[in-house]
Design a protein that fits this description.
Length: about 170
């Protein structure tokens, strides 16, 4: 009779891949190993470094760690020797070195996930809105009088924005 109870997809894939030696199995095992290594490395790092770095790969006895920017790379370089000796002692005895690379997407993900940073960005955008004064609008109109047709239209449109926000969302081109 058929085994009809529900099974987790991960278990089904693991079972079917264990029977074959497919490239998918190799990729899955490598990804699982990198995830476990990432958790171990983050457990050894100071708390401020944890969200700013991740293990990207391990090949030829070299651990590749990605960081968000150059300042975090410098900070991680200070921890590199301690991290290397801790990993050699507990997890990777064959580890020869650690290569640190910059991946700016880590910073973007960190900023997107932080509601505090999102609020800060919104506040900065509202503070940085530029406005055209009435005096500047008068000067633009005077300049438009002696300009070519295309430039005249653009200067007049710009002068019409006096007192309004000049952000791109308010423009009607």
């Amino acid at each position: 009779m058929r085994d009809s109870h529900p099974q987790a997809l991960f278990d089904v894939l693991e079972e079917s891949l264990a029977k074959t030696s497919s490239p998918l199995l190799t990729i899955q095992r490598t990804a699982n190993a990198i995830n476990r290594l990432n958790k171990a490395v983050k457990g050894l790092l100071p708390s401020e470094l944890k969200p700013m770095c991740r293990v990207a790969n391990y090949r030829n006895s070299i651990l590749i760690i990605e960081v968000a920017n150059a300042s975090w790379m410098t900070r991680l370089n200070y921890e590199k020797l301690n991290l290397l000796s801790a990993l050699r002692g507990s997890i990777l005895p064959s580890l020869s070195s650690i290569d640190i690379r910059i991946n700016p997407t880590l910073m973007r993900k960190k900023t997107e996930n932080s509601s505090l940073n999102n609020q800060t960005v919104k506040n900065m955008q509202t503070r940085n809105e530029r406005r055209i004064s009435a005096e500047t609008a008068k000067h633009l109109l005077r300049l438009a009088e002696n300009s070519s047709k295309d430039l005249k239209q653009r200067l007049e449109r710009l002068a019409a924005l006096a007192g309004e926000s000049t952000s791109t969302t308010n423009r009607k081109d």
